[in-house]
Task: structure prediction
Amino acid sequence: MRISQTVAACAALGLVGMFTAAPAGAATICWAFQDLETEFWVAGHKAVIQSLEEGGHTVIERNANESANKQLEQIRDCIAQGVDGIIFIPQDGQSAVTIVKEAQASDVPVVVFNRPPTDTSRGVVVVADNEKIAEQAVAFMADEARERMAATGKKAVPLIMVGDLGDPNAVGRKAGFYKVIEANPDLFETPIEVATKWDAATALANLEAAITANPDVDFLFTSSDFLFPTIRSVLEPRGMWVKAGDPKHVIMGGLDGDVTACGLIKDGFVDATGVQDLFYEADASVNAILKAIEDGDPTPNEVIEDPGFALTSANLADREMDMWGCALLAEKS
Amino acid sequence: MHDSGTIPESAGRAEAPGGVDGEGVEPRTSAAAAHTTGLVRGFVRRLLLSEYFVLWLMIIYFLALLPFLPSLSNPANLANILSNVWPLLAVAVGQTFVLTIAGIDLSQGAVVGLTSVVLGMLVATQASPEILSNASIWGSILTEEGGLFNGLAFAVPAAIAVMLAVGAVVGLFNGVAVAYFRMPAFMVTLVSLIVFSAFALWITQSENISDFPPGLVSLGKSPIVSVFLGAAAESRVLRRELYPIVTYPMLISLALAISAHFLLSRTTFGRHVFAIGLNRKAAEISGVPAARVIVLVFVISGFCAAVGSLLYSTRLETGMPSLGQGAFLLDVIGATVIGGISLFGGKAKIVWTFLGVLFFALLSNTLNLMNLSSFHIDMMKGAVILSAALLDATRRRIMAREG
Result:
């Protein structure tokens, strides 16, 4: 009786929907993300969910598996489902613009979490000042490089692992890196760029090639901390993965402030990382969407900036617990 | 096609031994039970062999879920389901032709990505050097002033014509390899998938090309006819309930599907396609120009994928090299198979493809409405496609047994 089995299965599945329906009076928020491939996104995802559920709101989750088209369809489903608001991490800056327009055209308030649209004039955009944070981290690394140059008389050979430039975060981080490099022409050789596309496999292949061609690289900035394990797998076999103080130490920095970076700074392998205040961004996103719902405003437009900071080997003792990665690391241990 | 209203005699006989034990059971009752069982079996059998099995299944599925998912029948949700149908239908129509000749076209995803980039690089009204200066086409086809055709009087139609031609050329490559070099369609189109996906990524260095002209964007998004049903009561922020009913993607996809229907069911070419799907050697002996037909089938498939790409790209307002990657082929082939297009070839109708796509869009939508995780959604979709393939094999077996 295949038909009856089908009907029964569908009915059973339907019960899932019934039991996950929103309680009366609570806001229903669609929380759509492109994927959870890095520690930052995993922690951000958890922080947003926790914040919403603690407030008694219902969360509808959607994972687009890195497809902009699927994300658009999922958000349209959310809108059709009658959600009160949308918080989402877009796949890229361009598709974010389209999705924000789509939501606002349907009178649904929308917040973009951390990865900004290429046009930030529409929707609530919660974003770190990537350029400034990267600049702070790289400036500390430059100070380290200057000390080394004083001892060796050699210019540093810098390398940057560039993110997907369709993501404005990657553009900002690259700009912050170059601001410091260009401000110190006496200190640096011409930088080497390694494209990563925010993909560990791509990063591995391109970094292998770059280090093979330029074994004298001694200054490395990664646009995201999630690539540190990849960097280690390339540097370690070449004897370049050593702690600060060793003459072979590659001065290294990143951006995000994740658990891995925290551990590596403590261990002396990494010198600095730009920190995005994840918990601030999650709270700001949740508060912004709830305020829009409360005010009955379907088209709130605002940029909420996370100032961030750089955690370095010098200020580690004072600011460790301000970095979300260190806070999570402390929770784990 | 193979519908039968007859009730198999064996159905009634099968119940007799269990129902009549000669003691304490009224013969009339057992006969009635056997009759009822026979009727049910006959009904299920008729349903199973019906050409429109997926339609009945879809109706049952919809009605069964409606009490648990009230938003399923909301006009907003129905309009949303339909908006997801049109681009997928365009691509699935092309796949239908290939499946009918017992082939498969895995390159459709690559065609979608490549032609999306082609469209973007021809019509973009501007381009950011920050993002695209590393692209292979930067400085020649694409500059800060936009795409190659930007500013021309017929930029949009010309760019669409080029992207459709690119899709057809990829199909031509596949078709020639399959028809004249006798290479397996699976292998040829798999290679095309890899090569043309990589080519699309290479020419833009993985970056997206945005800033489409407004006329092109409205092709993918702006409704032609909408209905206003008042203000929404459900959500806490008051909404306009304005639903697009007739859209450009709808007209384009339906025009493509209707043309394909006539081509497949009312022309000599269509009969040749079925003949090749049933038995290529026999078709060739019968005078069917098999090689030429196979090439044309793959050209149609590439063309349809490019039409789908046009609809996807315009609704995303971006030329994306990654469009069509990931689980996209699962959606295309899955929807086609669910509709009843046989993977063994020789059995297809465009209306089945339409129903399959509609069911697939409904399935995706309901799984989302159930708030299942993406992992569960993909598992469910896989299970449904597997069931459809199993059903196809079962139907063929039953039909073969009954002659």
Chain B touches chain A through 57 residues (CB under 8 Å). Residues 326-403 of chain B form one domain. The mean pLDDT of chain B is 85. Residues 220 and 311 of chain B are 5 Å apart (CA to CA).
